Amino acid sequence: MRNNTVTYVDTKNGRKRTVPVDSEFYLKLKAHGPRIGRIFPTDAYRAFTLALNRTTIVLPKGQRTHVLRHTFASHFIMNGGDLLTLQRILGHQTIQMTMRYAHLSPEHLLEAVKFGPRRGVDTTLTPGTNEGDEAGKK
């Protein structure tokens, strides 16, 4: 943990990755945990389990903390984050794994219109357009 980033070292795929975090959140993390080693004490998992037990939420075995990761990813996409950035944050080796979240982006297909090749094309002399038709009548 340094320079507003958190580094994950013991990941499922064995690759280390560093993720930037909000500066306010970083300061809270820094005050809460050590600079080197685990951010949260080992009883954080137990505390989360006890909190879940006080609710009606039922999760499959082994998914207790994974649900937090999934929730982050879902909200990241719903708030306008892009899939390639999310892939790097989550450490997915393939974009196909990250694509599970694509449907959560309310505007992900609108980018085809926003960034497509037709944007900014001059159609004044194109047959079949109003401008082209007008030009042809003169």
Radius of gyration: 23 Å
Q: What global shape is seen?
A: elongated
Summed up, the domain count is 2
Instruction: Find the CATH superfamily of the largest domain.
Output: Intergrase catalytic core
The count of β-strands is: 2
Mean pLDDT: 76
Output the structural class: mainly alpha
Major beta sheet, strand line-up: 1-2
Order of helices and strands: EEHHHHHHH
Q: What is the CATH first-level class name of the largest domain?
A: Mainly Alpha
Short description:
With 138 residues, this protein is mainly alpha-helical. It has helices at residues 23-32, 43-53, 66-78, 83-90, 95-98, 111-115, 130-137; strands spanning 5-8, 17-20.
Secondary structure layout plus pairing:
Blueprint: E1 5-8, E2 17-20, H1 23-32, H2 43-53, H3 66-78, H4 83-90, H5 95-98, H6 111-115, H7 130-137
Antiparallel strand pairs: 1-2
